[in-house]
């Protein structure tokens, strides 16, 4: 366990109790034991310790809090029965965690860590997780096995963004030059670069649009590709007509 939780002397208050932020209550033998319980609770950043033990026993009440008096000074009230201990909290009202992430103080070299909600990633949860936040292209005629010489679909109205072909595992962009008039267009698009491994994550890629077996890259677009373990997502940009991005079944 790698957590550093500091309780400065000037954050100790006799006959004070921090209220409205208690997340757990423990029975402890002394103040040091109370601080230890706070350290072991990832969300705890301050504690109230009852001076007198419970009737008929040796245990003191220890209240664990998820905030400090620096952010809620009016909640530090006078109570002659308690001591209050606050820590240096990197997760107060000025927390650097974004997008409703949970901030936990005392972790990592920064002094805090962010637990990202679904759909976000990054040191401070500042980046959208494109494996969860992407647009699905549902056009089944994008399949390179689909042949229709009369169709000339294109992606000129596609917004630059992350996309996934269908919502089925095993669907990827083809990595071999397709025959003409496949994928519902005259110039089917295929990935001339490699798909990344899970370890490689997100990489730059190139899509070529073929016209024939001896003209496999009539035009190209720079894209990005990310391996999401069971599927791939692609950062695609608009094309001119009649160029279109395609998929295949693996």
UniProtKB/TrEMBL annotation:
CDD domains: EGF_CA. The keyword Signal applies. Residues 87-126 form the EGF-like domain. GO terms for molecular function: calcium ion binding. Disulfide bonds join 97-114, 116-125. It holds the Pfam family D8C_UMOD. This is EGF-like domain-containing protein. The lineage of its organism: Eukaryota, Metazoa, Cnidaria, Anthozoa, Hexacorallia.
